[in-house]
Amino acid sequence: MAAETARYLTFTLNGESYALDIFHVKEILEYRSLTVVPMMPDFIRGVINLRGRAVPVIDLAIRFARGTTTVKRRTTIIIVHIRETALPDNEDGTPALTESGGGQDIGILVDAVNKVVTLDEGAMEPAPAFGAGIRADYISGMARRDDDFLIVLDVSRVLSISDMVSLGDLARGETPADVDAGTVPEPR
């Protein structure tokens, strides 16, 4: 029986190589100016107008606590589609997904997009429990490549809408208890 293969879009972020399943990628755009939206968490750099729709753009460097992406000639926005709802995770810890195929388009700001690669199951190793510099649950695996590894992201976890909403609440000084009780502190 042949090993299963999948295609991944590779990109760089702060000198590190990452990949995400091409299945989630809708399009790749040259960097364009963003409209900054007040009171958003730092990792949401702004929104772009994508054929009449406002699409939020997430800076993965900030999301991974690795500084801010500096806009250069090859800076790119990867548009991905996330089918997650704002529902909590399933009992087994997997993200809750909609049955209707709804969801949200989200832009990911990266230093540069490299190429699409095909990886088979044999090239993938499980996510490390530590040492990758980002949360282990953001990683679906590590792919061996030449003398190095390619960090394969679990895009549904990295861009978890419910997780980002929680982080946004905390960034504004709201605690989970405040949000649940409806007692949100006044902005400073």
Any idea of the CATH topology?
Answer: OB fold (Dihydrolipoamide Acetyltransferase, E2P)
Distance between the termini: 61 Å
How many beta-strand runs? 11
Mean pLDDT level: 77
Strand order within the widest beta sheet: 8-1-2-11-10-9
Any overview of this molecule?
The chain is mainly beta. The chain is built from four helices and eleven strands; from the N terminus they run βββββαββββββααα. Residues 95-100 and 175-188 have low confidence and may be disordered. The radius of gyration is 17 Å and the shape is globular. It has a six-stranded mixed beta sheet with strand order 8-1-2-11-10-9. Strands 3-6-7-5-4 form a five-stranded mixed beta sheet. The protein has helices spanning 60-63, 155-158, 161-171, 176-181; strands at 5-13, 16-21, 25-30, 44-50, 53-59, 76-82, 104-110, 112-120, 124-125, 139-145, 148-153. It has a single domain (5-178), classed as OB fold (Dihydrolipoamide Acetyltransferase, E2P) (Beta Barrel), CATH 2.40.50. One of its GO terms (cellular component) is cytosol. Residues 5-164 form the CheW-like domain. InterPro entries: CheW, CheW-like_dom_sf, CheW-lke_dom. One of its GO terms (biological process) is chemotaxis. This is Chemotaxis protein CheW.
